[in-house]
Please model this.
Amino acid sequence: MKKFLTIGLLMLMCQSILAQIDTRGNWYSGQLIFSAQDIGNGQVLMNGMAEGEEIEFVLAPVAGKPDTFQVKDSPNGYVNMYEGTKTVKHLKEGNVDVLCFYNEKNQLEDVISKEAEDDSEVLNRTRWIQQMKGYYVIEFDGDVYNLEWEDDVLDIGGIQVPYEAETFNGTPTGYINVEEIGGTFLMGLWKVEPTLEGFRLYEVEYEDRDFTSLFDRKKGELFYEFWYNDVDTDRFAYTSLVLLNDKQFREFDKPTLRIMRNSILAHNGYAFSSADLQEYFGNQAWYRPAASNDEVYPKLSLIERLNIELIQAME
Model:
């Protein structure tokens, strides 16, 4: 399947609409916001800020290859976070406008997307929450509770409880702080661990809110396990909507990444030949195999194709 997938992706990538790099607005790396400046001869200077340190590099066009660039160091001597990149391809399809960074093995390592939002912390938080939102269920003290994860609240059995997704230097950490409202069993600070079936919450104890010690926190033994509970929607439906350039999916183990990647194909009706994938997706109420896999690849959006490549490189 991998061989046909690679060929199909390359064919579809070539069909994307090519366009000049937009120097108006902002480019988002999944963590940082970059500005783009035309510095002549088709070159574009990309500049961002990380913890007070300037990050800067130049995209220089490759002769004879439209919308293909090489990465050069900053003329100002700033840090070049993409100095190991072999090739950068600029792709645009509809309202999705991206720069794709490939390594020496031609694996997609990073994607920078054109965004209207100029606050990286807002984008980081929104992207993380989009990957957690949905309907879940938990059994607690013999009772079953429904939970809906929303933008700003957790709806627990009809009780709306505000939460805060904690960040460190603007990047989501996977910790949420649930306010003491409604007297639910979820009050306090929790480490969120996404799973194939849903997510787990590990209780966290700490003495203060000094975020410099955030990564030294230990997740406790006590955890609550929530099961994804929307039979009509794919557990990883967001992979068709959200570009995974924030790399949050790195928290999943390799078998889950394989399911996650193939969920994108399954969502579009791909008929699998592997017995384990046939069994897994055959048990999903939303799965409808297409009459022919030839019908699947033309339906994949640019975001879906990029996410497949990003996940596959991580695997």
Q: What stands out?
A: Residues 132-228 form one domain. The first strand starts at residue 26 and ends at 28. The chain has a mean pLDDT of 86. Residues 29 and 252 are 20 Å apart (CA to CA).
